[in-house]
Amino acid sequence: MDRLILFRHGKAEAESVSGDDFDRPLAPRGARESAEMAETLAGLGMVPDLALVSPATRARETWEAARAVFPAAATQLEPELYNADPGAVLQAALAAGDGCRTLIVVGHNPGLQELTVRLLQEGSAPPALVARAQRQFPTAAISVFLIDDNGRPAFDGLFFPERGG
């Protein structure tokens, strides 16, 4: 894997019909922002070959909104991504990343935010950037890292959805 993209699911509804957190769907804003964020990535040439997606409804719906921009990307549901800690997210990415150039992981906080901060620190990103990622990693946020042949990360982008006020 040459590039790793971490994509936090879009804004979800507060409740699900079942009452289970796993089943919470995207809110309309979440679907819109997920599609917009995918367009941002595509516009920068950051097109995934493979998507690892949490099977939670909001993560699957985030990928469905984004996938319209990435129709050639393969999709793999990964049960261990649901509420995974940063180490589990990274392990899943490394295991699946062999043989693909760009991998996108669609998952949840706090795992994605914590992994973003960790990779920024490992990649010697500027302290202001690390602090920004520590302060916020909102729904539909994306972090991007180039991964060298030794598995070392280098910052390649941090993107937040535009929210009109």
What features would you describe in this structure?
Strands 3-2-4-1-5-6 form a 6-stranded mixed sheet. The protein has a single domain (3-159), classed as Phosphoglycerate mutase-like (Rossmann fold). The protein has helices at residues 28-43, 57-67, 86-97, 111-122, 127-135; strands at 3-8, 50-53, 74-77, 102-107, 142-147, 153-159. It is α/β, with parallel strands linked by helices and 165 residues long. It is globular. It has 5 helices and 6 strands; from the N terminus they run E-H-E-H-E-H-E-H-H-E-E. The N and C termini lie far apart (38 Å).
What is the fold's blueprint, element by element?
Blueprint: E1 3-8, H1 28-43, E2 50-53, H2 57-67, E3 74-77, H3 86-97, E4 102-107, H4 111-122, H5 127-135, E5 142-147, E6 153-159
Parallel strand pairs: 1-4, 2-3, 2-4
Antiparallel strand pairs: 1-5, 5-6
